[in-house]
Amino acid sequence: MTIHDTGGWTATDDVILRIDDVAKSYGPVKALRGVTLDIRRGTIHGLLGENGAGKSTLVGVISGQRTPTSGRIIMNGQPLERVDVKAMEEAGVFLVTQEPMIIDNMTAAENLMLGIWPVRNGLVDWKALRADAARMLDGSGIDPAALAGRLDAVARRKLNILRAMFSGGTVIILDEPTAALTVADRRQLFDFMRRLKAEGVTFIFISHYNDEILEICDAVSVLRDGSLAGGSEDVRAMTSEQLSELVLGRGLTLFQRARRDHAGKAPAISLREVRGRHLALSALDIAPGEIVGFTGLPGAGAKELARAIFGLHPARGRLTMNGVETGLPGDPRMALDAGIAFLSDDRRRDGAVGQMSIGQNIALSSLPSRARFGFIDRAAEAAVVSRYFGAMGVKSPGPEYAVDTLSGGNQQKVCLGRVLATDPRLLIVDEPTRGIDVGVKQDVLRIIDALSNTGVAVIIVSTDTDELVRAVDRVCVFGQGDIKETLTGEDITVERLRASVQA
Q: Where does the ABC transporter domain start and stop, copy by copy (predicted)?
């Protein structure tokens, strides 16, 4: 697409990138409605919005992955003649995706220099490559010779950012870079970003978390229904409540579970002597209707125990459900048959089938219960789909639409509907609100709360301390494969949780 002239707009030295009256339509659907915003040089500019607000479409336009229907992209005062990936990267705009683009069996140095490997006499100049990489990685804490597959989550994100920089990036778009990071990892990433900002790098930082925007960003823009709802050139002038109101178009009532004391109740679930990789659990009981939070550092045992209960992590131990003792399930099918349901933390990989319809996804895990002599009872399936499509509040014209047409938050609701359709006695949800906006997050927590009121026991695995404070009756903090501390009642605070996890 050809971008028109500047139309009288006067460039200023501090504006490196201007998105000028950009619109994007998909047939009758208007994904962006004349969005205009300025990104100042050497700043971190936050981008907020609900799922479906237009963030992904705007980022797609800025990175050249999507062609705008109308509007202009102006870089360093010059309107760009083309808007595609090559043109935007040549102009210095690079996108760093949520999942780091890393080749695991290559070294950090080789990954860093992908696309710009030095050549001598028609062959890769390995000596020059290693020397250049060592210089570029100096001060990052990354060993150039380390295999990329062995790098931790924050190092992988750093590597992607540096690769964009040294490929000519002056404006780097970070799409939810803190996903799956611990509090300590996030702090390390933010310190790294501040250092690069001081060297003149400009960031566009996409997040669903107000506290991250307020901590790391200089400016913020909020999208709502494809339009620019507001923002500030000085994020210090804004509060979390003001950001939430801009995101939602209304005041936000945060969910808070009415905590219950389940001490002394006969357990619905009992675990004893669970052993496996990163697991050395002595004992855990969960009462009917109780919501228990699992948290801890990576490898501490929280995630591993949750997956072991569903037959996804090799382990041995005793499991008792409603007075019947068995071993741990050997696979997910055995777990489902026992009344255990599990919602993965990665809905893209193993939470939903994007090309299938919403209804087919909702019905998927409970399919065997409706099979008769090799045939599916379609009437029963339609009833299940209708029930959970409505109960989850999925925003779509109907359950016949494909899941990949939905926003991330609505995809998560479909995944939750799928596992609830199995009619579980124990529900395990791993990072249930990761990557979804603040409004949908409250919806998901309310759905889980309502389920527990029917007597279903729930485990929430989360590194989001605020989520745990609002959603659970009890928190188990894991360390070295076992529960190192249990918090209940008024002891469940953000400060106490963070201190316990890091202790």
A: 17-250, 258-503
